[in-house]
Design a protein that fits this description.
This protein has no helices and 15 strands. Strand 10 and strand 11 form a beta hairpin. By secondary structure, the chain is mainly beta.
Length: about 230
């Protein structure tokens, strides 16, 4: 499970190029309640459609806010599911579950959540996961999560990859395909590995599984001119 910094080409069953860092030249009004950028939580390697998931995304609340309304969408891969998302300072706890048929989840690599960001200031903002969990008909999946960064009027590390140019965020163009950010999946130092389900979360200590739903735990269900860095 990861975050994609630039959502172009991403859908419920399709992923475009995954961006681990994205440079944004921003000059808009701070925290005006309007979406300045969008990012995606995505999954890879699922051969069956999801029944439930958790994606607790962390970030610097002094630089960005997560909007709780469209274009934020926690049900892209699970239409008709129960939206169990909750929002806190510096953490958006996205989650959804099918508690009974019909199970209309979309299988394959693709976007699970689209997140709309309201930018409030310049800085290098790291997006990570406090919890990542995914359950399909086959059962719980072992989930690896990886952080990523949005460089607001800043520069991405040269180790991220090549450069490309996009319009200024403040111009208001490309809101559906260009205002986005995300995190790539992969094995890196400090990655959080969890075996869990989704919804109704409780936490556990470091290195322990987090069971975030009754279903997952086996319990009865009763939750600018701007430049872009590309991965290589």
């Amino acid at each position: 499970m990861g975050l994609d910094m630039e959502v172009t080409g991403n859908f419920a069953s399709t992923l475009g190029p995954i961006q681990r860092c994205y440079e944004v030249a921003w000059s808009g009004t701070p925290f005006d309640g309007v979406a300045d950028w969008t990012i995606d939580v995505y999954v890879t390697g699922d051969t069956q459609a999801p029944r439930s998931y958790d994606a607790w995304v962390t970030y610097d609340n002094s630089k960005v806010h997560v909007l709780q309304v469209a274009p934020t969408d926690p049900l892209i891969k699970m239409p008709g599911a129960m939206n169990l998302s909750t929002y806190y300072q510096e953490r958006a706890a996205f989650g959804a579950s099918y508690f009974s048929p019909p199970y209309n989840g979309t299988l394959g690599n693709g976007t699970v959540v689209r997140i709309a960001l309201d930018i409030g200031g310049s800085g290098l903002v790291t997006f990570g996961f406090a919890n990542g969990a995914y359950r399909s008909e086959a059962g719980l999946h072992s989930v690896t999560t990886v952080s990523a960064q949005l460089a607001i009027n800043r520069t991405c590390s040269s180790s991220v990859g090549g450069l490309a140019e996009l319009p200024d965020v403040a111009s208001g163009t490309g809101s559906s395909g260009q205002y986005s950010l995300a995190v790539a999946v992969g094995a890196v130092t400090g990655a959080i590995v969890l075996v869990a389900g989704a919804m109704y979360a409780n936490s556990a200590g470091p290195g322990r599984a987090i069971w975030h739903s009754p279903e997952a735990a086996g319990l009865p269900a009763k939750r600018m001119r701007q430049r872009r860095r590309r991965d290589e």
